[in-house]
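Q: I have 443 residues here and want to know how they pack in 3D. Can you give me a structure?
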Amino acid sequence: MSDNATPWTQPMPDAQFKLMRDILAAPSPVGLEAAMTYGVLKPHFESFAPKSWHLHQFKGNAGVVLDTHPDQDDMFKVMIIGHADKIRMQVRSIGEDGKIWINTDSFLPTVLIGHEVKLFSEDPDAPGSYRCIEGGTVEALGAIHFSDPAQRDGSKGLKKEQIYLDLQIHGENKKQQVLNLGVRPGDSIIFDRPIRPGFSPDTFYGAYLDNGLGCFVAAEVARLIAEAGGTKNVRVLFAIASYEEIGRFGSRVMAGEMKPDALIGVDVNHDYVAAPGIGDKRMQPLEMGKGFTMAVGSIASEQLNRVIAQAAKANDIPMQRDMVGVDTGTDGMAGVLASVDSAATSIGFPIRNMHTISETGNTQDVLAAIHALTHTLKALDALPDLKREFLDNHPRLDQASPLTHQGSDKPDSEGDDSKEGSKESSPSKESNQSKKTKKKAKK
C-alpha cells in the first residue's frame, strides 16, 4: 500500500487532532456526560451523517447512539461503544477553615497533589443550572515543613481522607464564603489539562484519554463509513455510553435496549512494557506505538476477533493481542451484562499513566484502531449471511489439526543410505507423495 492509503503510518492531521482534543476536553464527569455527547459529538455527527441515520437518546443518562438503519431490526446489528464519562473527584464536606474535603474516586491520592482543577456546582437557587469554579488546586499536606519524616523520605504515603480542594479562601467566615459560592457535597471536580502534542513524534499527553479516545474512535469510524456510502447488510450502532467508570451501567442499558448481534468495546489499554515495577508480573508486552490491541479471553468472541484480525492483516494495520481474564474491564462486557446474545470483543490502544493528569498515547495507535474497525465493518458487510456465519462457525477444538515437529529430517545414523533423508534422498527434491508418506510415519 502507498503511504496515502495507510494513515496509521502518518502523523495525525491537525484538524483531526483538534477534534480529538475537543472530545477529550469536554467536561463530562460520571453522570454529567452531556457536555461531550450533546455539546461536541452530536454537532459532529450532524456534520456528516446522512439524513436517514438517526441519533437515539435516553431518559436515564446522557448517552447517545448513532444508528445507520433505524427500525430495521431484521438486519445484523453491530454496536461500537466508547464511554463519555470521566473519573472525577467529589466534594465530601467543607471545613471551618475553608478547605473543601473531597474524595479521590479512582485516582491515587498522590497523583492529585498540586494540580489545577475545575469544580462544577449546581446553582441552589436555580436547580439544573451549573457554574464552573476555576483556579483551585488539590492539596493534602501543605508545605514539606508540616510533614513527618516518613512522608519526606517516601516510606509513608497519603490517605484519601487527607485530600482537599484549596480555593485560596481567606478572611473571616471562611466556611460561609465557600457555602456562599453554592458548593455542596456531591459536586464534581475534574482536572484542567487538555491534551497537547508530546515531545516524541506522534505522541500526546493530558487528562482523560480514558475514555474520550474510545468516543473519538467511534465517531471517526462513523464518519468514514458515511463517506464510503454506508453499509448494506449491517446496521451499525455507534454508541457513546455513560457510567462506565462506576460499573459499566450505561453500555449495558444500550445493549439491553438495542440488542446488538455483535458488540465491540473501544477503550484505552496499558503500555505494560513501559509500566514501572511490574516486571515480575510477566504481563503481555503491549507497547505504545506498536498498533491497536484486541482482547483475547473472557467473553471475547473468537469469530468476531477473527474478522478483526483478518481485516487488520489484509490492510497491514499493526495489531497487538491483549490477554484478558474473567472480565475485559471494558464496555465489551455490555452484552453479557445485559443478558443479550451478542458476539463481543474489546479493542484499545496502549497508553501510559492511566488515571493521572498526564495520560500519554500515540496517535498512530488510535488511527490504527479507527481504520481496523472501518475495514472490519466493511468485511462484515460483504458476508452473505451474517447471522448464520456467527451461529454455525464457533471454533471446534476437537477438529484441530495435529501439529507435528517441524525440525530436521536428519537420519537416525550417519551413513545408512536406506534411511529417508540420506544424501541420495534430499528433502528438497522429494516428491509430494514421499513427503506425505513421511508425515504418516511420524504420526
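Q: Anything worth noting?
A: Confidence is low (pLDDT under 50) at residues 413-443. Residues 38 and 57 are 10 Å apart (CA to CA).
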